[in-house]
Amino acid sequence: xxxxxxxxxxxxxxxxxxxxxxxxxxxxxxxxxxxxxxxxxxxxxxxxxxxxxxxxxxxxxxxxxxxxxxxxxxxxxxxxxxxxxxxxxxxxxxxxxxxxxxxxxxxxxxxxxxxxxxxxxxxxxxxxxxxxxxxxxxxxxxxxxxxxxxxxxxxxxxxxxxxxxxxxxxxxxxxxxxxxxxxxxxxxxxxxxxxxxxxxxxxxxxxxxxxxxxxxxxxxxxxxxxxxxxxxxxxxxxxxxxxxxxxxxxxxxxxxxxxxxxxxxxxxxxxxxxxxxxxxxxxxxxxxxxxxxxxxxxxxxxxxxx
Length: 306
Hints:
By secondary structure, this protein is mainly α. Helix content is about 70%, strand content about 0%. It has a single domain (about 1-295), classed as ABC transporter involved in vitamin B12 uptake, BtuC, CATH 1.10.3470. The chain has a two-stranded antiparallel ribbon with strand order 1-2. α1 (about 1-30) crosses α6 (about 145-160).
């Protein structure tokens, strides 16, 4: 049993990375009162931008992740212009951004269908990687997995312990009050949206350059929507979001090990499990209105013009 458990848990960390980056970015944006449903589109734009940069430059992931971040942030600015500057409906703008991202990535990606990248080799941390059971799971991963740990720690600390985090949450609760005391609400929201786009772009670039180092149309496969659902699942708290990302990562990776574990279930059902789990989780959470009301940013989805 242990010989199956270790690769499943180790694979869970890698499978969760796109959800962690995209989910944390969306969480920051929603903390300021902006809901961007275009995460899927931003991930796909980041995926093709990262793959193209990695393939053309020869620097692999080192060039791919920054390119994905820049592409995701630039795509997010399109959403920001309509949803923040023009105060258009945020849900509609986000859906339009997803459609735009799917089409743009497919158009650019047709030139890279035959390409493949070398990916990343795991980095074994000395001494720690030799710890029984935990060593192979936690300390023999690629460096982007370790970067996801740092991203979580940095965002959680910023939101909980810094003046910036308090300001972001204050704008999400009452942008009118923040504006009244002199804070540039729209500019700060633009920054949060750009950060969310950059994180979604990194998530997409990780998919195309590390997790499956080749370009496939619509390769995000709904992960952007799961990331949005994770923010609600986490009740806008980074620690719960990490837990949810690993939960969905485990469900995703289980389909590749099911036959080895003797689980005789149709492959199609296993492939659908992450999305079924998303629906179940959202239904369960929505039944407890007190949790949502106590944690939901009061101005979420509401336009603000100073």
